[in-house]
Amino acid sequence: QVQLVESGGGLVQDGGSLRLSCTTSGIKFDSATMRWFRQAPGKQRELVASIRRDGTTTYADSVKGRLTISRDDAKNTMYLQINNVKPEDTAVYYCNALLMSASYFGRGTQVTVSS
Fold it and tell me: What is d(CA 1, CA 58) in angstroms, rounded to the nearest whole number?
């Protein structure tokens, strides 16, 4: 059974930092391209960061310089460090694993930025 579980969300002040985690099971993690999506209220889900099995990372232009995606294959876990958070970062953050033609999502973790 495939499981992706996000954690680390919560209430954070404008300008603060937080780290999200995505712990996985049931997939060959070290073969997966891992991604973070987010969905703000009233908006479509958007891809914000991805990391390939070889460690290559990509970011949405809107978050470059503030977000860092990383992975620990030994722990089957992916991370998203968010620095200098802004109110527009308020969203539900979803973990995604992409393997061949299969795509799996977690249930998400809420991040709320207070100004």
Answer: 28
> How far, in Å, CA of 55 to CA of 32, rounded?
11
C-alpha 61/C-alpha 64 separation (Å) is: 5
Give the tokens for residue 29.
């993690």
On whether the CB atoms of residues 19 and 80 are closer than 8 A, the answer is yes
pLDDT digits (tens, 9 = 90+) for 51-93: 999 999 999 998 989 999 999 999 999 999 999 999 999 999 9
Tokens 């795509």 sit on residue: 103
Q: Write out the two tokens for 88.
A: 């527009």
- pLDDT at position 16: 97
| Structure tokens that stand for 92 in this block | 């539900």
pLDDT value at residue 96: 98
Residues linked to residue 54 through DSSP beta bridges, in sequence order: none
Give the CA distances from residue 54 to residues 29, 43, 51, 70, 88, in Å, rounded to whole numbers and listed in that order: 12, 31, 8, 11, 30
> Which residue pairs, CB below 8 angstroms and at least 24 apart, start in 50-59?
51/78
